[in-house]
Amino acid sequence: MRKQLIQMATAGLAVALGAVGCDNGQANVLGGVSAIAYIQRTPADTGNVFDYTGGGTNGNVFTLTPPTASGVKKNLTNWSGGDVNAMDLSFDAREIVFSGQAPGDSNYHIFRINVDGSNPCDAAIGKVSQGPCQITMGANDEVYPIYLPAGRIFYVTNRNVEGGMIPQFRDEYERATTAQVATMAIDGSDQILGPRNVSHRVAPTLLSDGRVLLTEWRHLGET
After folding, report:
1. Most buried one in 66, 91, 144, 194, CB count within 10 A?
2. Which DSSP state fits 106?
3. For 145, how many CA atoms within 13 A lie in the half-sphere containing its CB?
4. How far apart are the C-alpha atoms of 156 and 194, rounded to whole Å?
5. Structural contact between residues 158 and 178, judged by C-beta atoms closer than 8 angstroms
6. Is 13 helix (H, G, I), strand (E, B) or coil?
């Protein structure tokens, strides 16, 4: 079962969930779940669910072991001045994929990290190191990654499937560059961009039958 670790959006929610009805002396915390992984970030005023590069600052990915109020909190990413937008847990519960703006970077990209804080990209070539590995690069933003079967990742990007010479759509309110769907191999190769939508597609989640559920702004009138 992939949810050996349960991901939570905020530190407050993770701690509160661990504390409700739990005693640190109990062997069966949250049905036997040994730890949770979650994002901690400083909240920002946004009010816009399609603002895929906003909503917080100073983000990091943490684990809490065991998932109780007195559990051990571990910072996996150890970023200072970066941000983490979203995350997902691998099917075997050994790895986390997340989107973030690394310290000093002007764009959001996709990263992978093992749940013990080690680097999975280096491990694949026989090298041992700590911290996340970046699997997307460039001048575009990539956010909201989720794992797919067969070693792929579904994510959202503001790259244009029709090529960089053609401007990407901008929404009619904030004039933000619109977010579109894409998939890639787990190492960041074989990127396949989906069709363009006039506005945003964000916040995907994988359903049990293999379909992807997401939030979309769909225009019903004139563009």
Report:
1. 144
2. S
3. 33
4. 9
5. yes
6. helix
Label residue 139 by pLDDT band (50, 70, 90).
very high
- Tokens 């006039």 locate to 198
Question: Dihedral through CA 86, CA 153, CA 188, CA 77, nearest 10?
Answer: 30
pTM for this prediction: 0.85
Tell me how many helices (H) and strands (E) the chain has. 2, 14
pLDDT at 28: 66
* Rounded CA separation 200/44 (Å): 20
* Stated length of the chain: 223
Q: Which residues contact 137 (CB under 8 A, 6 or more apart)?
A: 109
CA gap 145, 160 in Å, rounded = 18
DSSP-derived letter for residue 201 is E
Q: Are 132 and 158 in contact (CB under 8 A)?
A: no
Mean per-residue pLDDT, 155-170: 93
Distance set, CA 78 to CA 16, 59, 84, 131, 161 (Å): 23, 9, 11, 8, 34
Burial class (CB in 10 A: 0-12, 13-18, 19+), 72: exposed
Torsion of CA 120, 122, 127, 132, to 10 degrees: -70
Q: What backbone phi and psi angles, to 5 degrees, belong to 95?
A: -145, 155
Residue matched to tokens 């509160």: 16
Give, rounded to a whole angstrom, the gap between the first and last alpha carbons of the chain: 44
